[in-house]
Amino acid sequence: MEKETDIKKKMLRKQIAAARMALEPADREAKCQSIFRKVTEHPAFLRADLIYSFVDAKGEVDTHQLIREAWRQRKRVAVPRIERREMHFYFITEFNQLEPGGFGILEPTADCQPAARIDSALMIMPGMVFDREGHRIGYGGGYYDRYLAEHGGMPTIAVAFDLQVLEQIPSEAHDIKPDILITENGVIKF
């Protein structure tokens, strides 16, 4: 039987996904540009030599531009691939090293090199719903929660549209909060 928290999270995911997909293309682009500027001007991004980033899909904030900027600044970039219910990061140097994965999300090809952790790394993480206290609802697989619980210690920035930020959302003890949330309207530090 599903817990009440899980039911609420599913409802919020569905509601926010619909609102995110309803954004007009020009509005989405303007919001993504604002988020891009805030991320790339943030000290955590400027200091990092390695950027762990998700590859956007299904109406998420555009990360392709962010990845291109990291390469332009000669930063290494690692993106996730799901293997047997575990998330692993692999270095990419160009977008043609990506192929559709199990969820239809672009993932590194099998010949990409596993990412080796360095001290000056930054994680750019996704999420479906956030609140003003830093709680995050992902997509329900717990991949980032498990990965960061095991490989934590690096700064984390979540990126989202302001419509994805609510006053309060259900959370659980194992849910990992980002250090910072960046939307088109501002930077929230937790």
Going across the major beta sheet, what is the strand order?
Answer: 3-2-1-6-9-11-12
Distance between the termini: 33 Å
| Largest sheet entry | 7 strands, mixed
CATH class: Alpha Beta
Number of helices: 5
Proportion of strand residues: 25-35%
Q: Brief overview, please?
A:
The protein is α/β, with parallel strands linked by helices and 190 residues long. The protein is built from 5 helices and 12 strands.
What do these coordinates show?
This protein has helices at residues 4-21, 25-41, 43-47, 64-72, 143-151, and strands at 50-53, 76-83, 86-92, 98-100, 106-108, 121-125, 129-131, 136-137, 156-159, 165-166, 180-183, 186-189. It is an alpha/beta fold. It has one domain (4-189): Rossmann fold (3-Layer(aba) Sandwich). It has a seven-stranded mixed beta sheet with strand order 3-2-1-6-9-11-12, with helices on both faces. A three-stranded mixed beta sheet has the order 8-7-10, with helices on one face. Strands 4-5 form a two-stranded antiparallel sheet. A hairpin with a 4-residue loop joins strand 7 (129-131) and strand 8. The longest helix has 18 residues, at 4-21.
What's the arrangement of secondary structure elements?
Layout: H1 4-21, H2 25-41, H3 43-47, E1 50-53, H4 64-72, E2 76-83, E3 86-92, E4 98-100, E5 106-108, E6 121-125, E7 129-131, E8 136-137, H5 143-151, E9 156-159, E10 165-166, E11 180-183, E12 186-189
Parallel strand pairs: 1-2, 1-6, 6-9, 7-10, 9-11
Antiparallel strand pairs: 2-3, 4-5, 7-8, 11-12
